[in-house]
Design goal:
- Four copies of one chain form a homotetramer.
- Chain A is of the alpha+beta class.
- Chain A has 17 helices and 24 strands.
- In chain A, helix 9 links the parallel strand 17 and strand 18.
- In chain A, helix 4 crosses helix 5, helix 8 crosses helix 9 and helix 8 packs across helix 15.
- Chain A starts with 11 loop residues before the first strand and ends with a helix.
- Chains A and B meet through helix 1, helix 2, helix 9, strand 18 and helix 11 of A and helix 1, helix 2, helix 9, strand 18 and helix 11 of B.
Chain lengths: 469, 469, 469, 469
């Protein structure tokens, strides 16, 4: 479980070409991708001549005034973006799509991921006279594009992206073209779909489902798709690299009903739960999940173990994100605002509590106490992913290493901190085996946050943490 | 399932006496009772001399500016109210607590329920010179109190309530007393708790849990509890009547982790699900629920039937309440905004879809299509309550009879409308038997909306539907 | 000059009968009457069957969302009200029109003035079972009307108003009648106009001018006009009394382009200025006004004295009403935020500074320093009204007597406090003489705040100050 | 008079170095400069290490939440900007200060004026790889600075500004320096002041008065002042040019109590009025002004002509800027919402109506009718500036030539359109003579909008109109 105070950077992108309701479809797509970014939302829409845009803070429904703002944005092609923020100083200047004028006219871009060599690029571009309004990766890419001597936009974009390293699934909108690119290792997902004659791009297929678009395939690692009035073309402008799909998409990020990397994330969550039950069986009465993200894994654990699945925690969906902090004496109420234990289910039961991951463990510590307080006789914590021990440089804002409980603490100590009767994590081997067995053939996974085995060495890891996706 | 467009009137009340953080506790209590009323929220707080109040439209967190407004309300005793609206013309004038000055000073009241003889009372009071600012039941009660010749406030309140009929769980706050009353039949719940030296009252015990208050007992049907500096006293000022607890509290209203009428609602939901499986077995592969309200019933169905429970529908919790209506061509997207089918779970499966109730059936009709669209081979709808055939006059705003699909349509026709392969409702007998078997001894249930068997004949049923709780 | 921190209670009322754009006309009328009340605005509109209303805090343009809210209010008859608040705890519950249901249906009322015997009425009505939601005079009147046994609404209203004493210009709207009444002494103004076939009522004629309505006459002291589908009828239901028009309307309240009490207020302001010059001549270079309210009096002073009129102070019209208080070290900037001295005009000049009145004198003290700081060699303060020594019980919220600088301080001491070279007030005799000479024949004036000579003895003066107009 | 629908681009800038309350002083300064820009406001504040900024739409008091936002901005040096918009698509992206990172760290800038050669600069910079987020002149300057090879910031700024032409009074803030520059012709004003040990810069001296800062002198045409911990230094990095102060600052823009170009604008307004009376005498009873901007000129006309000055029009200061357009049938009310004629003053009088300028003449046409409607027997319009016949390319957004009534219409035709009995404009010669006679020695004026005599030929006049100040 990702606690509220451990918010991570992860974004959602969308694109559509060829539908007169492009803005409205983008609104629906972003709405479906809400879980990938809740700080701000924006879209840029072109009518073939001019790009208009709207960006605002807040959830998708708020950012577009419950849909009203969409009506002003006319055109048949669009890109959109939901953003998750890492810092308290978030403001609308950092909202995407980022839009500029350059020598070939207007260009908008929206980006999911993180570059690992922007520090050096940034310095060298400033030295030669560039100015920057944000610290965003997107702005750096736009500078590189503007400086390219290639003759057409796809060429300029390829030229620019060949100079950056790291993780990106990125969409571009010019007045007449929609372009989507995925980095050579394919860290982050990007899917291609079709809605009548229109082409759509999205981080996850749930954005297709909401508009009844058909899933075609994923954009491949290292692929650039160019969509314009001549149709859709595919290029592979980068050197080939070892695939490294972010396995956390399957563990937590992607919506359970979404396909990413060619497969349903729901299936993996269940399989991780089954594998977890095999690796860490326990004699217990019921299996419950930390809702909603761990529910499928808990069902898998239940199936494999034969222990009954129950709804032992109710999540309060009215919790506002900007809830005023209770004062010191009320601190203990915090977790109660969000989760309600069901006494009738928990009393005198030996409980397996399944969660998807642990970052700092503070909320899980409180949940274990809450469950015991509701009468559970034993609480066995099971985590459907391995211990997170290393920071991510590819677009997920985990805490710095010092804040990852598993980076410096052994499992037994974590168990003691949580106050659990037992604690079991999915093994890296079990996770990778499951990924290989049920994933699309040929997909390789990035396990850096668990294993420390980084596919791309970041130029400056501290610096990276300051930059935004 | 209650569809969004079939919003019902149902309210939540709270009271506390004897804690210097009375306003803050009321805020927490109302927050926990959010599911009972989302249109407006208000509280009145007394410091022993003066009552201050705040009422506003919106969710609890919004209504109090995320808690900030609470700081201005000083005192050790308070009442609060969340309101659900029936009409589009809702405004803050109708928000509760309702507060007035009368011959004994200030008096505030908050009310859950509905009176059935207010039309006549209203007319007769107007004839003798009363003026009314709202059509609220609460205002009528306050007029009756003000006209009473009894010598103390509890006596005046008893005098007033003896003149009204119907359903009420109601709290009053004077400058120095907190008073809670439940109607003689006990239609609506009201619980009594203790937090250190303070006494608390709430519609459901989830309001106690959030503040770690201890559940003491329910306020009994016909009981008045008076709490002041002399402690807590109990009176039974009304003629005894047959108990008639609203069984819909167990079917849908109460939060699963709450006690109402002395028992956990979660337990009933599961038992209704088991009973439903006994009454309407079917050969199928998986059981899924319409989330979140029908999940526990679906688990019960799964247990009893041995058919595996699965998460087949994901509910989108970001759906704003004031979402702008998609235009005609987008109408089909509506249900997709709220529910996402999990293809990996549903494809080629024979599905039992459990819901808690059907009012008009429009959303369920769309859900069945959505589930089939995700590849389900069969969809068997099971409803964990009997067909709703009659309007409620005791505080639930079901549609007028013409809009209740079951009031004029046989089950087979409803099945056809829903497009389901089969449809089974829990029987009235099965529901009542379950209620008797698992409920607190001595509790009787109102089943009027299913059976038409009204415990109190409304003076004017049409008129009733116009009045607000 | 009335300083910002000495806000007074004074309201504006409007009514129209017989125009399908009644709501829009009321909006325009209230807009023109904005200066009479800036805290809240409201209107009630009847289509002959049903009264709908809207009330909100803020300026007229804000209160109706820049006019948008007006479109929902359909009907051919309406009343409206702008309110000035006396207290910090102002809220929308106190906004008018006040609307209730009583035995004859709906009734709305809007009121300018203050009753002087409401304390006793209030108590006696509570004793017989009435409840009150506000401390407003209007609510008391509505109770009296509801208790009347007269057979028609005009009779009931007359019956009610015969029981109250004090100052009122009040309008009522039932589903089918517009009724306007002025108290027997005619403290506050009320004008009657005509717009095509429609009849209009307003506190001042500027509300007629904005809609090109024709001024017909003032509603007379003690007159009730009843306007309905049978036309307009006039009644005099009260005992005759000595006329006592509030001369402060001419000194400060009424807009200079308005007629009140049958004459242009602008004319009086100029005449007061001339009289002031006669009574308090001085050898000086220029005459300047505290803008905008004292400008006409300053022109009068200039004409009579022959001393040149100049614009020596510029008023900053962007000052928000809710400006956050500068901290202690910035206190000295306060008056600079509002008034800017014109150095080129003031330097080395002997200045006559004309203001319309002094309440506490704090702002005038700062202005004198500001003018000296801009280089004026002498500052002679001239006030176009007599010293205010007594509180008003008829609808103007002057400070309690202790806060009126003139109630306890001699003119010479006030001069010293202001730091002026000389100080001259208009004499009561000069003011009344001017009023008689230029006013409509037969109008008598209330001079109570200057002379202490109260036309109606307030039942309880302290109590009165707590009640709102 | 500038009508509301003829809004012009004109901005206000402010800067302060050396006061720990820099943000608060900037807030006060911008507040005093509110009349120069009402669309948006922003400030950037440095604590010597880091620049923080806040920009928002709306009036100064709104943009900073009535001052609250100022508290977060810590530092001892700051710049601020109020912006007037030309287009409906105004948004916060265009609000200033504009802030970027470049090779020397952070840099913020705020600008009043307009460049005349940005089209070519823009194109050439894009060709060499620059990207632009806005069409603002400020962004172009920042690009030029970032590309400069000079060794220090003042040198880089001088280098950049040597490449642009046109009108600018511009301030820059780095982490450690405050720099102010005025273009070589000095089109727009910029004043230097002192507040204790701190230095202040502002478009007009009214920003100094509000904080009791002392006026030191104007920044000279072509001067750059650099303020940092070493004190204040002055440079003249540009080739000398003929001075060309915008005489419209004296006619209309500058606040009457402000000094610009070294002299009080009030003095000029009065002198223009006297000159106007000499050039266009008329036999009349009273002189009135279109308030508030023409009042001083009207006083001058009155003095010179001996005709009595009167307040004949009252301006309604409650008019919201975003007032909803009355529908067609209400169009005639528009001017009545803003101006109220004083009948007692106007009836049967021969009126001289003084205004400061005419752009399209639509409002003046309505005002003449309003004044006649109030009973004036004659209306003689006198304009205290010459006919505006040519567009301005130096920062004032007059209409395109086709919309300037005087560009294509003779005075007699304008008189007929206005419905005036006579019409007289101040002559160019009279205006310039007055400017020379009363202005600071050595100041030359730009009269291009009257004479067509442009000091700097715009590279592309049409293009210019698209760019923003």
């Amino acid at each position: 479980m990702w606690e509220d105070d451990e918010i991570r950077e992860e974004c959602g992108v969308f694109g559509v070409y060829g539908d007169p309701a492009a803005a409205r479809l983008t609104f629906l797509g972003l709405y479906a991708l809400q879980h990938r970014g809740q700080e701000s939302s924006g879209m840029a829409v072109s009518d073939g001549h001019h790009i208009a845009s709207h960006r605002a803070m807040g959830l998708v429904s708020e950012a577009y005034d419950h849909g009203e703002r969409v009506n002003d944005l006319e055109g048949h092609m669009a890109i959109g973006h939901n953003r998750y923020s890492t810092t308290g100083t978030s403001n609308v200047d950092n909202a995407q799509p980022f839009m500029v004028n350059f020598k070939r006219g207007q260009l908008a871009t929206a980006h999911n991921g993180n570059f690992t060599n922007t520090g050096a690029l940034h310095l060298s571009m400033e030295e030669t006279g560039s100015i920057f309004r944000t610290s965003s990766d997107s702005e750096i890419v736009l500078h590189l594009i503007a400086r390219s001597n290639e003759s057409d936009l796809p060429g300029m974009i390829a030229d620019a992206l060949r100079q950056v390293e790291g993780a990106y699934s990125i969409v571009f909108l010019s007045d007449s073209q929609l372009i989507g690119v995925r980095d050579p290792r394919g860290f982050r997902p990007l899917c291609l779909g079709r809605l009548g004659d229109a082409h759509v791009l999205a981080s996850e297929t749930c954005a297709f489902d909401i508009m009844k678009a058909e899933y075609v395939r994923e954009v491949k690692p290292g692929e650039m798709v160019v969509i314009d009035e001549e149709g859709i073309r595919s290029f592979f402008p980068f050197e080939e690299a070892e695939p490294a799909a972010c396995i956390f998409e399957y563990i937590y990020f992607a919506r359970p009903d979404s396909k990413v990397f060619g497969e349903n994330s729901d299936k993996f969550r269940r399989r991780f739960g089954r594998q977890l039950a095999e690796e860490h069986p326990v004699d217990a009465d019921i299996v419950i999940a930390v809702p909603d993200s761990a529910t499928t894994a808990a069902l898998g654990y239940s199936e494999q173990s034969g222990i009954r699945f129950e709804i032992g925690l109710i999540r309060n969906h009215y919790v506002g994100r900007s809830f005023i902090d209770p004062d010191q004496s009320m601190r203990e109420f915090t977790v109660r605002l969000k989760y309600n234990p069901v006494q009738g289910v928990l009393r005198n039961r030996r409980v397996v509590l399944v969660d998807d991951s642990i970052v700092r463990g503070t909320t899980l510590n409180q949940l274990v106490r809450l469950i015991r307080g509701a009468g559970a006789s034993e609480v066995h914590v099971r985590i459907s992913s391995p211990p997170i021990r290393h920071p991510c440089y590819y677009g997920i804002d985990m805490q710095s290493r010092g804040e990852l409980i598993a980076s410096q603490t052994r499992v037994e100590e974590i168990r003691q901190y949580l106050g659990a009767d037992s604690l079991g994590y999915l093994s890296i081997e079990g996770m990778v085996k499951t990924g290989k067995e049920y994933g699309k053939p040929g997909v390789g996974y990035c396990t850096a946050c668990f294993s420390g085995d980084y596919p791309v060495i970041p130029e400056d890891s501290l610096n990276k943490l300051m930059l935004e996706s």
